[in-house]
């Protein structure tokens, strides 16, 4: 099945009080035939707790999984190797993340580092928001090489009592932006040759917005943010030389009547940069926006049902023909067909039955 895509799914297999049950089995790998919508289970690894976010090497041979374990003052990130010939996942090593509730990660463009952010609950432990680990030649992780702590809070007393870093996005070589839900900031760091971060600037969002996940436009000059707490999507002009962000547009992610009961999660952009997709937990939908290629402004195109309940994470296939939604509380990953010209989504009726899916990732090799 060399022509099939490799799909990695992390599931919740250890209870946490803020999730509605843990029915997963850890980390899974599938072969995905996009033409036939045929999915074959290749491997699973249950020896990892709550792999709620994954970063995958372009060839699919390495996967890095955050372990989100409630009550621990420090989380873990694990490195695993996947051998497609033998269809086996083999653990390489794990490292502590110097903070609790590791929420997101990203592999650096140069393949030398793994960036990790800790959401953090409470003030005990190392309490670092953003950490940088090195990658050894065999794909295993070094200990944390450098870190940065965020301080402050937003106006939402229930959710913004302190800093809560929620995602990290590399926007240019050795330039990253960390979205901090707790402080309503998009913080830009320059990564030095030794892996240490230097904070360049912090861009405030609307008070109480709660920035969660972000995505970079293929042109490298537009940056889009999914704001969890006020259910909005924002578009920003990005200066890739400095990481400076300038707000262009803000649009609601759900109808007004649904905002109080909704919490936004993930955001994805089509390979051609023309359409933006944002996941809504509560409204249980995917918000669809057209992106003006010149101005970066957003035009709402409506909502598509997510094919389940509580869409925590999204993944577009490399071709952009399909979007997968990890529907956490429906125990399924739904496969939606994407219309390239209109950007609209349609449920194919095909889904992957799996307990409490939290993250879906394709191995995406560079274009030839």
TrEMBL record:
<keyword id="KW-0119">Carbohydrate metabolism</keyword>
<keyword id="KW-0313">Glucose metabolism</keyword>
<comment type="similarity">
    <text>Belongs to the cycloisomerase 2 family.</text>
</comment>
<dbReference type="InterPro" id="IPR050282">
    <property type="entry name" value="Cycloisomerase_2"/>
</dbReference>
<dbReference type="InterPro" id="IPR011048">
    <property type="entry name" value="Haem_d1_sf"/>
</dbReference>
<protein>
    <submittedName>
        <fullName>Lactonase family protein</fullName>
    </submittedName>
</protein>
<dbReference type="InterPro" id="IPR019405">
    <property type="entry name" value="Lactonase_7-beta_prop"/>
</dbReference>
<dbReference type="GO" id="GO:0017057">
    <property type="term" value="F:6-phosphogluconolactonase activity"/>
</dbReference>
<dbReference type="GO" id="GO:0006006">
    <property type="term" value="P:glucose metabolic process"/>
</dbReference>
<dbReference type="Pfam" id="PF10282">
    <property type="entry name" value="Lactonase"/>
</dbReference>
<dbReference type="InterPro" id="IPR015943">
    <property type="entry name" value="WD40/YVTN_repeat-like_dom_sf"/>
</dbReference>
